[in-house]
Amino acid sequence: MAAFAGLTVALASGHLLTFDQRVADWAFAHQPAVVYWPARVLNYLGQGGQVLTPISLILTGLLLYRTRSVRAVLPFAAAFVLTYFTIGPAKLLFDRAAPAFTGPDKTELFNPAAIGKYGMSYPSGHMGNVLVWYTVMALLLAALLHRQLTRREWLAIRVAPVVIVFCTTVYLGFHWVTDSVAGVLLGLVLARILTRIPWDTIPLPPLKGWERPAGL
């Protein structure tokens, strides 16, 4: 959180704004269709409501069915609560427009003009979601497979999507570079919380056997 706070203070003080604008200008000037459309497709790897949440919900349902344990639902529920009460409120608080915004002072934080479709850009929800929800998927997959993920699987689930979504989000002009960095920093904190919770030993009241461990 210290890094996130430091970046936020730097932006609020006017630092890195020119850098953000230059990167966005370059991205908008270099978007041939052959690159743009694959980037659009790959960027869906970071779509919370359309992709990540439904997939996580399916995996949760499979684990719930297999284990008959309410604990299978806990990582999904915790991720939903964490993202809902952090990323969304932060966007409202910092009032930063996206690169495609046509109003004034679009690189600045605390910009009252940053409203509408291209408002609420900081921190990047794409990056926060990708860190949190792929962590949930990794936890659920490990429980379903009854083993720890291999290094290759870990890289494919926890690292590759982050890199892909970061690059495509900036390239497509959905967020400034620093929006995405802030989303990563916040997402890392939330993901760390999720991985440190002892899901199978959290005290629960008797639930007719549904409080049994779920292999998480």
Any overview of this molecule?
With 216 residues, this protein is an all-alpha fold. The protein has one domain. Helices cover 63% and strands 0% of the residues. Helix 1 packs antiparallel against helix 9, helix 7 packs antiparallel against helix 8 and helix 7 runs parallel beside helix 9. The protein is elongated, with a radius of gyration of 19 Å. The model has no long low-confidence stretch (mean pLDDT 92).
- Stretches where pLDDT is under 50 for at least 5 consecutive residues are none
The fraction of residues in strands falls at under 5%
Class from helix and strand fractions: mainly alpha
> What letter string, H or E per element, gives the SSE order?
HHHHHHHHH
Number of DSSP helices?
A: 9
Q: Give the CA-CA distance, first to last residue.
A: 26 Å
Please outline the major beta sheet.
none
Number of domains: 1
Taking Cα atoms only, what radius of gyration do you get, to the nearest Å?
Answer: 19 Å
Mean pLDDT: 92
Number of strands: 0
Approximate helicity band? 55-70%
Question: What is the molecular shape?
Answer: elongated
Keywords: Membrane, Transmembrane, Transmembrane helix
Organism: Actinoplanes lutulentus
Protein name: PAP2 superfamily protein
InterPro entries: PAP2/HPO, PAP2/HPO_sf
What's the topology here?
Layout: H1 2-12, H2 17-29, H3 33-43, H4 48-67, H5 74-84, H6 87-94, H7 125-145, H8 151-171, H9 177-196
